[in-house]
Amino acid sequence: MATAVLALNAGSSSVKFALFHQDDAGQGGGTARRIASGELEGITTHPHFRAVDADGHVLVERTWPAPDPAAADSADGTDAHHGPVGSLIDWVTSHLGDVPLAGVGHRVVHGGPDFIQPVRITPDIVTRLEALTPFAPLHQPASLGPIRALATLRPDLAQVACFDTAFHHTMPAVATRLALPRAYGQRGVRRYGFHGLSYEYIASCLPDLAPRLAAGRTVVAHLGNGASLCALHGGRSVETTMGFSVLDGLVMGTRCGQIDPGVILYMLRAEGLDAAGIEDVLYRHSGLLGVSDASSDMRDLQERARGDAQAREALDLFAYRLVQQVGAMAAVLDGLDGLVFTAGIGEHDAAVRATACARLSWLGIRLDESANAAHAAVISTPDSAVEVRVIPTDEESMIRRHVADCLAGG
Ligand SMILES: Nc1ncnc2c1ncn2[C@@H]1O[C@H](COP(=O)(O)OP(=O)(O)O)[C@@H](O)[C@H]1O
Ligand SMILES: CC(=O)OP(=O)(O)O
Ligand SMILES: [Mg+2]
C-alpha cells in the first residue's frame, strides 16, 4: 500500500520540507517519489511558507505577520495550533488525499555520543535530545520545536529523529579526540562531525555513479551556508572538518570555521564579552559576512567582488581554507581518488570549484573547464588522477529512507 512520509530539515530560522509517496516501504526504504517540497522561512521574523510540486510549480505561498516576541511558543514558530509549523502540517494533511501519512522524519543536528542511528521519537528521547542543547545551542532547539509541535498536534503520528552526527561514528577514535584533559572526553567533549545526512546520501549514490570512488578515497565538500568536508574511505566517514560543534573547519556564511581558542579567551578577558556575546560573533557575524562586512551569500559576494576589495578577501579566505583542508583530508586518506562538490555553493558555483581544483593540481586533479562551467556530473578530464564530480545532495530523501527503515523495525 502506498504511504506518505514527511521529511523536515530544520535550520536556525527556516524549516525545509519534502513530502514523499512511497510504495512497499520496508527495510531498504522501497521506492519513493517526491510529490512536494518547500520551505518555511523567517520563522522568528516574517514567516513565509512556499511549496512546489515535483516540477517546480508553486502549490501554495503564504506569509504571516511577525510573531510577538513576548509569546514564547509562538515566537519560535512552534505554537502547535496557530504557528507556521501547525499550518505546514495542516497543508500537508490536506494535500495527502487518500494516502495515509506513515510518519515524519526530522533532521536533528546533534545525536551526542549515544545516538548512532535514527530513532523513533518518544517523550524520553525528546528529554535526551534536549540535554544535548549545550552542544548545539542554535541548531538543537530548531529541531526540537517542530518535534514538540507535532507531538501535540498529532500524538498518533510516528516521528523519527535522523542525526547529522550519526554518519561520522565510523571515524577512528584518534579523529574524535581533542587534546584536552581526559575528563572532558568522558563528558562528551570530543569531535563529532555534522552534515552526516548529506554525506550519507552522497555515499549511497557513489556505488552506482562512480564505483571507484565508492570503494576508494573520496573527499566530499558540502558547501552551503554551513560548510564542511568529509573524507570517505570505502564509503565510510574517517574524518571531517566540523568537530565538537558546527563552528569548526571551513569558512561559512556567518560562522568562523577553524579558530585559535586563544581568540575566545581574548574576547572574554580583553573585550569583556560574555558567552552570549561570543556566540553571537562566532555563529552569526563571522565567516563570509564578517570578512566582507557585506554579505553571507556567495552569489551576492561574487557580484560585489568586481568592485569591492573586502568581498574579494572573503572569497579568497573561503577558497584558501577549502584548499588547505582538502589537503588535510587527502593526507588522512593517504591520497585521493575522488572529489565531490555538493550543496548550494558546491553544486552551483563553478568559480569556487575552478579555484579549488586549480590549487589542488598537485594532487593530480585536472579540471575540464567547459564541463565545470556547464555544472556537468563529471568535471575532471579523462586523464585526471582524481575524478571530480558534482552531485546534488538530498538530505530529505535520506530522512525518508531512514523513516521507512525505522518504521519497518530496522
Ligand atoms: N548559482 C549559485 N552560484 C553561487 N552560489 C550559489 C548559487 N546558488 C546558491 N548558492 C549559494 O549557496 C549557499 C546556500 O547553500 P544551501 O545549500 O542552500 O544552504 P543551506 O545550508 O541553507 O541549506 C549561499 O551562499 C548561496 O549564495
Ligand atoms: C550542521 C550545519 O552546519 O547545518 P547547516 O549547514 O544546515 O547550517
Ligand atoms: Mg543545507
Automatic annotation (TrEMBL):
GO terms for cellular component: cytosol. Its EC number is 2.7.2.1. It is an enzyme of class 2 (transferase). GO terms for biological process: acetate metabolic process; acetyl-CoA biosynthetic process. Its main location: cytoplasm. Mg(2+). Can also accept Mn(2+). Substrate binds at residue 107. Keywords: ATP-binding, Cytoplasm, Kinase, Magnesium, Metal-binding, Nucleotide-binding, Transferase. Pfam families: Acetate_kinase (PF00871). It is found in: Cytoplasm. Mg(2+) binds at residues 9, 395. Belongs to the acetokinase family. Homodimer. This is Acetate kinase. The lineage of its organism: Bacteria, Pseudomonadati, Pseudomonadota, Alphaproteobacteria, Acetobacterales.
